[in-house]
Amino acid sequence: MTYRMTQKTERAQRQHNLRPTGQDVIHRCQDNPLITIEDLPSVCSDIWNAGVIRFQSEYLLLLTVETLEGSGCIYVAHSADGYEFFVEPEPFMTASEHGPFARYETFGIRDARIAKIDATYYITYVAGSESGERIGLARTNDFQSVERIQLISEPDTKNGALFSRKVAQRYAMLERPSAGGSIWLSFSDDLTHWGSSTIVLTPRSGYWDSNRVGPASPPIEIDQGWLLIYYGEKDTSAGPLVRLGAAILDRDDPSRVLARSNIPILAPRARYERIGDVGNVVFSCGALLEDGRELKVYYGASDSCICLGIGTLDDIIRVCRESREEF
Amino acid sequence: MVHKRGRDLLQRWEHNPIITLENVPYQCNTVFNGTPVKLDGDYLLLLRVEGQQGYSFFCLARSKDGFHFCVDDRPCMLPAEDGPFKMWEENGLEDPRLTVIDERYYIMYTAVSRHGHRIALARTDDFETFERIALVSGPGNKDGVLFPEKFDGAYARLDRPLGNDVGSIWISYSPDLINWGRSELVIAPRRRYWDSTRIGASVPPIRTDRGWLEIYHGFKMTSAGPIYRVGTVMLDLDNPGEVIGRCLSPVLSPRREYERIGDVGNVVFASGAIVEDDGQVKVYYGAADTSICVATAHIDELVESCFESADSLSDDFCRPTCPYRQAARSA
């Protein structure tokens, strides 16, 4: 597959020092990695996957930080331009130590994804414990205080990605049950009780996403339906290779896949993506569509730093469409 | 009644197994894991039949006394051939569990497909037609049993998701039987015990004076494969996610030839029970995934088994109060 840069990408590259390492559809920001553990005001072990949202004219990330003890917690980082981030000194969310959530968060919390539904910001995160991994749901209005709502999956189901509005009058969420390694869709009337689960996207043998797939960023509504950035894993003798792909889901019935990229839109190639605590990983929990044309994908590299990749919506849709006959 | 060491609390019926493939009037591979209900004095047993093709479906058997059964000529519920359930049942229907709520009969069963095991829910009023309601879990989940009562207006079920590759019993609630949530861990496998590897709900919970009696299954992995046994746990009447007692020893273990030998040997797997007016409990169980058996105990004995030791939830086999230790000392 050949890739031709569009005018928009060239302009973006001039503006933001994007560097086309390899020929991925998503281009790396030259300032990558944007955030490393050096940027954190406290000592920690690792920094991973971030959810992203525009909040009060700022770019806001929810970072997963692994403490030296090995537990996960979530920090807020702010930026005026989406490139240079300031990390808050205190964590935004830590594992519950009391109350009904505590027994399911003993290994910590991680992988926050943000969806704005009406005027409320909903955060889905992974709660880990001896009992397995579950999806937690919390909400905030100000990113100062946060209120947990419910744990909304049984174990082992993670990667909860909420749709930003109701679909067919119901809340909808993509998720990744461990069994089978596929992306599923569930619905709810009240955000607490979920059902009508169905399968959306499965691993494809022989492809880059042959072993497991899962939702990366929450779905983004575009003219063609819902744009889903997802991650796919292929197992190698040295461990999994985790890459990002894209798919377009039907607007009214998101269990229908309209198009899906045969190729990854971002694969680990840069040094900071190859080398780290978990090397050969690019993993996203959030992306922003700007001016309806440019997609900013915030991603964790090697489970050790936060990076930015930018692509045009046109390019992403094109690679999805090119594989349309697969469906 | 004294529960002697080495003797299971549940007493096998002397003419076990009660149903084998010889009793099924059509060709099949095995028949096991039946769930009973008492209807106008008659016993109905919804059986899991595994066909020669290799997938399972359901068939009814009928009895006047709960021991001698006659199997229907035709299956009553086959994998869906069209509609939304088809793709989830392509590899069969397994392990039905019957619960009566407000005089309607609900069947939780496992739907099997290339995408894994899911819990499904169906309903019948006459045992002639079965109406599918919904698939009520994601993949990798099974052993769903519905409570016969609601809790603050919510339906409740036990099930067996896999967390960290460990199979534990969880509880979930629903306002409408379709959407489920507020899931909580109820009990997990116990190290060094007979239920150390994996556990799951077996019999739909039975209301007793002291709480909900749940007869569950557990297994311990050995070098020759798992040993499936039957145990008991008592759950709080108002808050069924809360454990108030759990057996230390199993109430039934594979010992007889028909439990040791079969397609999956060393398996006793309960999937339903009838509590008679005099307190006798008939527990129906699949033996070696090959036949259906029945064993009985008094309800009070089963309740007591959940409180075998004052601190039965702790890991206390080696404590000096342990009856086995005492027996060894006095010998």
Give helix % range of chain A: under 10%
The N- to C-terminal Cα distance of chain A equals 19 Å
The CATH topology annotation of chain A reads as: Tachylectin-2, Chain A
> Could you state the order of secondary-structure elements of chain B as H and E?
EEEEEEEEEEEEEEEEEEEEHEEEHH
CATH class division of chain B = Mainly Beta
Rounded Rg of chain B: 19 Å
Helix content of chain B: under 10%
Write the layout of secondary structure elements.
The complex is a heterodimer of chains A (327) and B (331).
Chain A: H1 7-16, E1 18-19, E2 27-29, E3 46-55, E4 58-66, E5 72-79, E6 86-87, E7 108-117, E8 120-129, E9 132-140, E10 147-151, E11 157-162, E12 171-177, E13 183-188, E14 193-201, E15 212-215, E16 220-222, E17 225-236, E18 239-249, E19 257-260, H2 271-274, E20 282-290, E21 294-301, E22 305-312, H3 313-321
Antiparallel strand pairs in A: 1-2, 2-22, 3-4, 4-5, 5-6, 7-8, 8-9, 9-10, 11-12, 12-13, 13-14, 15-17, 16-17, 17-18, 18-19, 20-21, 21-22
Chain B: E1 11-12, E2 30-39, E3 42-50, E4 56-63, E5 69-71, E6 93-101, E7 104-113, E8 116-124, E9 131-135, E10 142-146, E11 155-160, E12 162-163, E13 166-167, E14 169-174, E15 180-187, E16 198-201, E17 206-208, E18 211-222, E19 225-235, E20 243-246, H1 257-260, E21 268-275, E22 280-287, E23 291-298, H2 299-305, H3 323-330
Antiparallel strand pairs in B: 1-23, 2-3, 3-4, 4-5, 6-7, 7-8, 8-9, 10-11, 11-14, 12-13, 14-15, 16-18, 17-18, 18-19, 19-20, 21-22, 22-23
